[in-house]
Design brief:
Layout lengths: L3 E4 L2 E4 L4 E7 L1 H6 L2 E6 L6 E6 L5 E3 L7 E6 L4 E6 L8 E7 L6 E2 L3 E6 L1
Parallel strand pairs: 2-11
Antiparallel strand pairs: 1-3, 3-8, 4-5, 4-9, 5-6, 7-8, 9-10, 9-11
Length: 115
């Protein structure tokens, strides 16, 4: 049973923008804190952006001012708008429900930023 489905990754030049989407099952969306993580090549998975409680958000320092997490409750969808992309943003991006130790992860979507 697929509960988190991501889309929107791709190849973009430095300075460009992408928007990732994650459609979640209603049960997951309403019960768990939603967020985005990423895993750069050869590195560990890391937090990108997450809701903390209600509509409050938390961002990694490296993406503050460039990325925005948002949600559409009616569509049970979480978005990650990524602007001013840099080569170091290259990674597989994962939608998550419940935090880093949670079992609820999307399949991942590749984002590649060329210099």
């Amino acid at each position: 049973q697929v509960q988190l489905v991501e889309s929107g990754g791709g190849l973009v030049q430095a300075g460009g923008s992408l928007r990732l989407s994650c459609v979640a099952s209603g049960r997951i969306f309403s019960r768990y804190v939603m967020g985005w993580y990423r895993q750069p090549p050869g590195k560990q998975r890391e937090l990108v952006a997450t809701f903390t409680s209600g509509v409050n958000t938390n961002y990694a320092d490296s993406v503050k001012g460039r990325f925005t997490i948002s949600r559409d409750n009616a569509k049970t969808t979480v978005y990650l708008q990524m602007n001013s992309l840099r080569p170091e943003d290259t990674a597989v991006y994962y939608c998550n429900a419940g935090g880093l130790l949670s079992a609820f992860w999307g399949q991942g979507t590749q984002v590649t930023v060329s210099s």
